[in-house]
Amino acid sequence: MALFCGLSFWMANPCQAQLQTCPVNINFSTGDLANWSATTGLVGGSPISYPAPNAGISTLPEFNIQTTGIRVITTSSQDHYGKFETVPVVNGYAYNYSIQLGSTSNSHDLNSGSPNPGGFTRSVSYVINVPPGSTAVPYTMTYAYALVLENGTHNSNEQPLFKATLQTKDSIITCASPQYYLPTLNDAQSGGGGGGGSSTGATLDSAGALAGGFTNSPELFLSYSGQAGNNGTWLQDVWTKGWTEVTFDLSQYRGQQVTLSFETDNCRPGAHFAYAYVALRNTCAGLEISGPDVACTNSSLTYSIPALAGGTYAWTVPSGWTIISGANSNILTVEAGATGGEIIAQQSNSCANLKDTIQVTTTPPTVAGLVNADATVCSGSNSTLLANAGATGNVVNWISSTNGTNWTSLNVVANQYTAQNLTATTYYAALVQNGPTCRIDTATAAIISVDEKTVAGSIQPSDINVCLNQPLLPTLQLAGNTGAVVNWQRSADNTSWNNFSPANQQSSYQPASINSTVYYRTIVKNGVCPADTTGAAVIRFYNTAFPSATISPDSSWICYGKSAILNATITTGTSYSWSTPSIVSGGNGTVTSLPRNLTVTATPSATTDLILSVNNAGCPNPFTDTFHINVAPPIRVFAGNDTVVVVGQPLQLNATVNVPEANAFLWMPSTGLSNTTIPNPVAQYTNNDPSLITYKVSATTPAGCQGTDEIRVTVFKTGADIFMPTAFTPNGDGHNDQIIPICVGVQQLNYFRIYNRWGQLVFSTSVIGRGWDGRISGTMQASSNFVYMVQGIDYLGRVITKKGNLLLIR
């Protein structure tokens, strides 16, 4: 309930609480123009009238085009140019309805090539029957407006326009009758574009527009200024003014009629648009302060009243409160003190002199407290009751998180919350608020830790055979478990089980000795989850001696292609076998008497583990032992390619080997060699040496491993020369299939060329040992005569040139 004071009695009379009723549909709450009168038309022309009551009419056309000129808005959206809501919230008051006067249409939309007929105008008005009564009792009304005007660059009196008019029978109440247009500097010339003697080319007074509360919209508009055709220009020439409220007091007009009108006009020439939004409050009870009546101590709060055009403001706040801002405006920001009291607002202008008081109490700041208490549960089916304690305020929501950083709303408003069926560790916190003006705070979270369900796993190996006197018993190993071992159990019959004492909580178990069949299992438990038990693993006892044997040596080293001698003595057993019998001389066998001594040779081609297995009839487990045989890699020697020389020509030999350690060389025979124990001796021959010599070269490692190779040297006793066959038979039988020059004592072949009977080159090479196979471009030639030319340089540097005929025989 608000308190109101009239202008003439403000100082003398106390304010009284009043309840005033607003005119029907003054705020468009019926969703139409009921009780409002409306007009549309051309500026300066004959308007089209839509007199009241207009019940059921929510839209009116704009002159004689399809565009809507007046419409009632019941659902808010955002204006394209101003980016403000079309149904506003202003000074803490939420309007529910508004109207739009006009649109972006202009005279171009008449599709006329004739001189511009002028701009559109639209207006609505309401005749207010001010109720009779005392003039000391305020009868106030508040409206809000927002504007969108396109700059027409005309003189100011021809620019797009919005105006509100509050009119009595004989005057206009100017304080509630604002008028807006985009001001220009009046330097335009008459007779400009658009016709009708209008002016154009004026410069916008940007500073004046900004001072009037306008903002230049970033959205472009396709302007048709001065054009009756179809081409427009995109301009950033739209200016907007956000929502502004006006409050006026009609108490001095008790029992009279007052008319409230709103109007938008395009520019007088008509090519630039204007439109506006208008909304009215549905309260006429004088001044009302908007803001909370319960304040949180030390919090920042906002209180507001509708603005008065040209008004002055004064606020009073309770003792201990601090005014942060707005002491001389209609919006006050304060910091609440520890105690409550009265907040008083006073405003006045030539239209009204108003006062309101709101009684405010205080509440302590929020204390979030903490959630009791941390707990641990088993994954799956679980339930934990959580409660918030030590808080000042009420729980407004519960939140949860699985990582303590990202939280999810649980949409639960209660002091307690039951966490159920968790499968992962989760944090829970309560959001607490001590009244709507206190901030929401988060309680200290509780952590519900979740243990995975126990999984006992299995014991490996699960089925084991053990013979009498078996020296190495197998280790039992728990695998695939979730949780820790509580204890192991043993049983003689897989029915009655006994716990280990003391308890064995290790994941493995090594039996000390076995003299009867026995079963084992483990009990596993993970955290708070119930325990689980593995299936049984059995060790089966056989009362037959475990086989036994000794071997020598357990490791040996041999050259590639050689054999290792292996010895074994079987002391218990009935048969034996080898893992790779193909490399062992003697193979598998039966033990006819004990002890059984074995001596065998093994010839592996690579390093090998050769396993001896000994069995004893009646015992399912074999005795095994391993001979490890290291085999050196094969030694590959290359003596070089077979070659030919002449008497007196030095021949450089060069043997290579794949194993660097094989560095002891020996050449045989020694005929003509400069040295027989190096890899690269020089050979030189006399007429007394054989015409064909075959050398064998060996390379030996320090360990005695050896590799060999041979090379054949043909010795010509004719002197250095190039010999050419006179014919060849390339028929693919492997004999005489190519024609190749025989270079004796020649160190370099300059060229070997073959021409056909027409002098065309059919083959050419400079590589010794390469010849022609009788093909030209892959096609075998028929029998024919050819000419050859060959040139080389002998080992003494002499040039040898030969040419002649050769015959290809098919």
Structure overview:
The chain is mainly β. The chain folds into 7 domains: 20-280, Galactose-binding domain-like (Jelly Rolls, Sandwich); 294-362, Immunoglobulin-like (Sandwich), CATH 2.60.40; 370-451, Sandwich (Immunoglobulin-like); 458-545, Sandwich (Immunoglobulin-like), CATH 2.60.40; 560-625; 637-716, Immunoglobulin-like (Sandwich), CATH 2.60.40; 721-808, Immunoglobulin-like, CATH 2.60.40. The strands form 21 sheets. It has a 7-stranded antiparallel sheet with strand order 5-6-9-23-11-21-18, with no helix packed on it. Strands 4-3-10-22-12-13 form a 6-stranded antiparallel sheet, with no helix packed on it. Strands 32, 34, 35, 37, 38 and 39 form a 6-stranded mixed sheet that branches. Residues 1-18 and 192-197 have low confidence and may be disordered.
List the keywords.
single chain; 810 residues; mainly beta; Jelly Rolls; Immunoglobulin-like; 7 domains; seven-stranded antiparallel sheet; six-stranded antiparallel sheet; 1 helix; 73 strands; elongated; disordered N terminus
